[in-house]
Write a structure and sequence with these properties.
This protein has helices at about 1-5, 15-35, 40-60, 100-110, 135-140, 155, 215-230, 250-255, 315-334; strands spanning about 65-70, 80-90, 120-125, 130, 145-155, 160-165, 170-180, 190-200, 200-210, 235-240, 260, 270-275, 280-285, 305-310. It has about 325 residues and is an alpha+beta fold.
């Protein structure tokens, strides 16, 4: 029974079906033990049922190690004149993990060529077999990172995934928001806010999220819940896989808060606050997957690359410091 419990994470069984099969097996054992009318056997059967309950609660209910932050960025950088940001669903690959390690290395190498300041990821993964993708990317690019677990349990089933924000500027604070409704019951959807220190007392709050993919009404409801949670917060940018098209209620709730959907046409979105001092210079789809199979693609989703510039220009001294900082950073990544 213990082998079944810990092995369920490595076979392709939907959580509800897998849990149901395990509960059924435990009940059969318990009923058999009751039929034999032997107290030792009854105790063993009861222990099997209890073990299943503890396992299910531990994986699906308990919230441990849900927010991980890694510090790598340099402090005291000059205020930037421009920011380059990527939103990308990196495909966690559970349960088969197709070409996982090679795909991770291709992704890291490709992102290193983009000279990014901020990266917002969905389906960022940690597995017992392949390691921690966010930590690997942060180490390779010298970026601070924040990871908010949504689903899975690394200790119990060897896998978990969630939202991540990486920044070449220090992350002052990371906030995890669990979204409602939770449907189906075994799946969590979360949002992650990262407050970035842009230097000289300036901050920027960015948010990444991943909404339900099974039902548009659920995605719309989760977006409305999230919009309500951040309505009073100074979030400058919302990005993620909303699993909803432009013009849906999922994007409309953010537009009513004053955000603009800057690259319409997909289910992945970057929405920038019209009140933000950062304005969009360019925004486009990148890292497009080719065909149905992964092949050499990095993911089954494209990314969105955004160049932001200040609506109010920096002083001449600030521009000189920013240009020197950006040039040295770009040279270090080549």
């Amino acid at each position: 029974m213990a082998a079944l419990l810990w092995g369920v994470g490595y076979i392709e069984v939907p959580p509800v079906l897998g849990t149901g099969l395990l509960v059924l097996a435990g009940l059969i054992v318990a009923l058999f033990c009751l039929w034999t009318r032997r107290w030792v056997a009854i105790a063993v059967g009861a222990a099997c049922v209890a073990a299943i309950g503890v396992f299910v609660v531990d994986v699906l209910v308990l919230e441990r190690n849900v927010l991980l932050v890694g510090s790598r960025a340099e402090w005291g950088q000059p205020r930037p004149a421009a920011l380059r940001l990527l939103d990308f669903n990196v495909l966690h690959g559970y349960p088969h993990f197709p070409d996982q390690e090679a795909r991770a290395q291709r992704t890291i190498a490709r992102l290193a060529t983009l000279d990014l300041d901020v990266i917002i990821l969905q389906e960022a993964w940690r597995t017992r077999q392949h390691g921690d993708f966010v930590a690997q990317l942060g180490d390779a690019l010298g970026m601070d990172s924040a990871f908010a677990r949504a689903n899975g349990n690394l200790e119990r089933i060897g896998f978990e995934e969630g939202e991540a924000i990486l920044s070449r500027f220090p992350i002052l604070q990371a906030i995890r928001i669990q979204l409602e409704p939770r449907k189906p019951f075994f799946e969590r959807r979360v949002a992650l806010i990262g407050v970035l220190d842009l230097g000289e007392g300036e901050t920027l709050a960015v948010l990444g999220t991943h909404l339900d993919h099974r039902d548009l009404d659920t995605a719309n409801a989760q977006a409305a819940h999230l919009a309500g949670r951040i309505a009073s917060l100074p979030v400058g940018l919302v990005a993620g896989d909303l699993n909803a098209p432009s013009g849906s209620r999922a994007t409309d709730v953010f537009e009513r808060l004053g955000f603009a959907d800057i690259v319409p046409g997909g289910i992945d979105h970057v929405l920038v606050s019209k009140a933000s001092p950062w304005k969009v210079e360019t925004a486009r789809w990148v890292l497009q997957p080719s065909g149905a199979a992964l092949g050499q693609a990095l993911s089954d989703h494209p990314g969105i690359l955004v160049n932001l510039a200040r609506s109010e220009p920096l002083s001449l001294d600030e521009l000189a410091n920013s240009a020197a900082s950006n040039a040295s950073y770009a040279a270090a990544q080549r």
